[in-house]
Amino acid sequence: MARASRNRTLQVSEAEKPLLRQRLLLPKDISGSNFTDRTIHGNLLDTLQKLPDEFADLVIIDPPYNLSKDFGSMKFDALSHEDYAFYLQSWFPAVCRKLKPHGSLYICGDWRSAGILQAAMEEELHLLNRITWQREKGRGAMRNWKNALEDIWFGVKDKRHYTFNVADVKMKRKVLAPYRKDGLPKDWNETDEGKFRDTYPSNFWDDLCVPFWSMPENTEHPTQKPEKLIAKLILASSNPGDMVFDPLLGSGTTSVVAKKLGRHFCGVEISEDYCFMAEKRLIMAESDKRIQGLADGIFWERNSQPLPNKQDGNNTKEE
Ligand SMILES: C[S@@+](CC[C@H](N)C(=O)[O-])C[C@H]1O[C@@H](n2cnc3c(N)ncnc32)[C@H](O)[C@@H]1O
Fold first, then answer.
1. Which is one Pfam family of this protein (predicted)?
2. Dist. CA 68 → ligand 1 center (Å)
3. Please, where are the H alpha helices in 3-69?
4. What is the band of 163 on the pLDDT scale with cuts at 50, 70, 90?
């Protein structure tokens, strides 16, 4: 069936696969620091034994939530709370050991596993916050409230010494009450597009939708995170040249955004098809560093506005 002309979902053809496969690193071939800027195709449990401790400045984890979900070659079946906690214990402490002494870690989850994730974070790290992301999309329910929220737990190894670049994650919001003092705008700017204020980011994020079919970052991965969301984490909690590690990489969003923002990266993914998506996106990121919803170092209110043509500039501004 022909696909709609506005559908920009990433496609990987059979012809591209041999070349993309060559770019992948297998756990058995890890040595020294050859995992830098690579996608490791393998099981996280085997890979963790081969990676050195304390190599990552920032770890971003988007694990299978405790829901039955088909990840292609890997099917996750919903577990009891006790078994999900046990599953997490099989890899989470080992992942935390990969963090440098001044490193930061984010782990995503939904409301069902909030208690388990909070306990796991507090066991291994200093828990600093829980970000709530209102992702809008969610399946309606006849006898329950639709779930449209996700959590992103934020922890650090050393609560006195960690990276947090707040100026890099300010958000541009329309000013509702444009106060003036002595006739001049108070904390806001007048532009051709209207009156805006750069605001400090809170732990409630309602400026991000999940990738959808007309967005160039969209893939067929069932639980892909938006590039803009990962960009906020990376800009706030790492510096250019730092190493960002994603142990459950999926379609490659963390590595792609790290590359676009001048960080080193390493990701692990068990499904070869998702590794191919990651590699194709990484190749595309060599010539196109745009992140939808981030323009000239400012996060705009939405990430859903189309990107302009590449020659039109670095990025777009949102509605
Ligand atoms: C929630 S998804 C991550 C999605 C990702 N954030 C993105 O934007 O595409 C979790 C991923 O972990 C992978 N995975 C699950 N268990 C794994 C394991 N033991 N080793 C490596 N990858 C695994 C799944 O195949 C899935 O793609």
1. N6_N4_Mtase
2. 14
3. 17-23, 44-50
4. very high
Residue 220 near residue 193, CB atoms below 8 Å: no
Dist. CA 63 → ligand 1 center (Å) = 6
| Cα gap 152→283, rounded to integer Å | 28
Q: In angstroms, rounded to a whole number, what is the distance separating the alpha carbons of residues 300 and 293? A: 6
- Which amino acid would we find at residue 12? V
Q: How large is the average pLDDT for residues 249-258?
A: 98
- What's the CA gap between 316 and 244, in Å, rounded? 26
Residue of higher predicted confidence among 301 and 260? 260
- Residue 314: what are its φ and ψ, rounded to 5°? -70, -40
Mean pLDDT of 217-229: 95
Pocket test for ligand 1, best of 26, 40, 67, 249 (most atoms within 8 A of CB): 249
Ligand 1 environment, Cβ below 6 A: 43-45, 62, 64, 71, 74, 221, 223-225, 248, 250-251, 253, 268-271, 274
At residue 311, the pLDDT reads 41
**β-strand pairing of 149-156 with 126-134:** antiparallel
pLDDT at residue 283 is higher than 50: yes
Residue 248 Cα, ligand 1 centroid: separation in angstroms? 4
Average pLDDT, the chain: 91
Could you give the residue ranges of the DSSP H alpha helices within 104-187? 114-124
Domains and CATH numbers, the chain: 32-165+201-298 (3.40.50.150)
